[in-house]
Design brief:
This protein is mainly alpha-helical. It has one domain. It has nine helices and no strands. Helix 1 crosses helix 2, helix 2 packs parallel to helix 4 and helix 8 runs antiparallel to helix 9. The termini are far apart.
Length: about 200
């Protein structure tokens, strides 16, 4: 893992912002490529003056949104059968799509935002949105906001403590747990407000 991280740091340094964009595009599409090993090294390079932190963050968000749009249009144009038929070649199973469908159906459009903050969900939440033909503007806004929060957290972590691997792992673990709890609370509030609004309208 250490060799892989070293390679990614070197790759990001060599390719610059284009490298961040490409890797975050892959992370948001079908390829199971963890964003942690892209944005944290980018933040670390920014702390050394080899990159601009804001440029790295914008590149990460742009890559995430582009990858999500790729999945969205893939689902929209090709449909469920195509995804299930060829998804197995990139380690995507029918059970994964069903979980994403259930998540999207249960939590509505806010799942596009909240799903970007949950590990193992963020890569595939765009698929049910595409299958459901979610409004593209709303999809883009929710995706950019969710991806933006995650990208900023990782980049700032890399900027502040990117050189301390042990401390980095500890903070990252705590942040992931806090994000999941925050997302669950956000969804709960959203659902209650929605139910209350429906009752009042009746």
């Amino acid at each position: 893992m250490g060799d892989m991280i070293t390679w990614i740091v070197e790759t990001v340094a060599a390719l610059g912002y284009a490298g961040i964009f490409i890797m975050m595009f892959l992370e948001s599409s079908f390829f199971p490529f963890p964003s942690e090993v892209v944005m944290i090294p980018a933040g670390y390079l920014a702390s050394k003056g080899e990159m601009n932190l804001y440029g790295a963050i914008l590149s990460g968000i742009a890559g995430s949104l582009s990858g999500a749009l790729f999945n969205y249009y893939l689902a929209l144009k090709l449909g469920r059968e195509f995804i299930l038929k060829y998804g197995k070649y990139v380690l995507f199973r029918e059970e994964s799509l069903q979980k994403m469908d259930d998540f999207f159906a249960k939590h509505g459009h806010i799942s596009t935002f909240s799903g970007r903050l949950i590990p193992a969900v963020r890569q595939y939440i765009s698929l049910p949105a595409g299958l459901a033909r979610m409004d593209i503007v709303a999809f883009s806004v929710y995706t950019a906001l969710g991806a933006g929060i995650w990208v900023i957290i990782l980049a700032v972590l890399g900027y502040v403590i990117g050189g301390n691997q042990a401390l980095l792992e500890e903070y990252l673990h705590t942040i992931v747990i806090a994000l999941v709890i925050s997302v669950l609370l956000l969804i709960t509030i959203y659902v209650r407000l929605k139910v209350k609004k429906e009752i009042i309208s009746q």
